């Protein structure tokens, strides 16, 4: 059978060949889509004549010429060629990234806009867009699946329930893993509708289904969740299921990680409850100036008068910076009656200082582009020291508040002891000696007990990984078909 010859003629830059078997019989213009005879008998003279007179080609060349004159890099536009498939994929990505409805493509203004950019582009229906989205999703999913499969590391998951504007519950599961270049990666692997009730059994079934779909049951190391009862029930069921099938790695207590940011927020909420009265006037002052356009403008004028340099109106978090402006507003506006007292501002300043370690800790452990486990101990220890210091505060109200906050914080510390300390031991800058020193200094008689518990967990974890390690370490062979994750992937988190 005759093989298709390589197209050498420059005419094929302007035309698309149409074959019968392996022989060219016709040619379709890339610009106006008109079809011409191009077999051996008739030749391609009609195609060459058409290139010189094709109105769409002439118009497009004029457009490119105008763009070239404005472009700092004219060479980027000289070899451009319209491709319906490329443009269609770009449109689908645009719709997905901007969370637009598929019906956008059927809106007349949008169609006119596209026609002004390139009349050659054929708008597809919303049904076709939906099919393209599913096809693109499956393609991206396959690429991510290959990357996770090619990675030697175990994976950790984070999961959370998300409620839509229609009050429908969705479970979002994110997979965190280290790729073969030792870079931390994270990708959403599941975003699925969860049937009611959202109890532990339902969440467990959804999570297990996701793990099975991605073939991650034998690679799961830990899962991080909010501190809720249904989440605890879900993890208990998962632990039982994995234990029966011998899928747990090392100490099973390391499997469930409570979300540190969520716990810190719960501790803070206990603190704020005690100071609602002291901060009420500040809160009402912020509401007052934001309640009308006239008050906003008046307050902005006062801010300039007192010499405060800020382009934003105050929020409750930043109200302390506008203390002099609120005082000036009180002297000029008789309707402003909830002016904060000196005691209110003093208490606000104390709260800012009191809660600063919580703010810093939340910023550190909420990071998603770098490993955070080895930072938990250090930032949480700062919070612990702050609470212990303020327990003996001379202000009785403050002391009572801090005692309650400390109790809740200590409860989290005890539950998450291994997750907090094991990463410290694995950090070559600190190791066992630092961990033992801190535990003895911070917990007194309980220190040795905690130290023994952490040491046992590390040894058990080491044994588990040792049993999975290859027999020889003389060098690693390059993996076949290595994949890379596209940074512009619209399906990536």
Automatic annotation (TrEMBL):
Domain BED-type: from-to ranges: 6-61
Keywords carried by this UniProt record: DNA-binding, Metal-binding, Nucleus, Transcription, Transcription regulation, Zinc, Zinc-finger
Biased composition (Acidic residues): 483-493
Subcellular location: Nucleus
A Gene Ontology molecular function term of the record: DNA binding
The UniProt record lists the keyword Iron: no
GO CC field: nucleus
Protein's recorded name: BED-type domain-containing protein
